[in-house]
Amino acid sequence: MQNTIIVFLGIYFICFFGFAVVFRNFIVAKRTGVNAFKLNQKAGAESITGWYFKFLPLVSILVFILYSFLPNLYQSIGPIDLMNHAAIQWMGMGIMVVSLVWVLAAQSQMGASWRIGIDHDAKTAFVQKGLFKYSRNPIFVGVIFISFGFFLLLPNPITLTILALDIALIQIQVAMEEEYLTKQHGDSYSEYCQHVRRWL
Question: For residues 151 and 162, is the Cβ–Cβ distance under 8 A?
Answer without folding.
Answer: yes
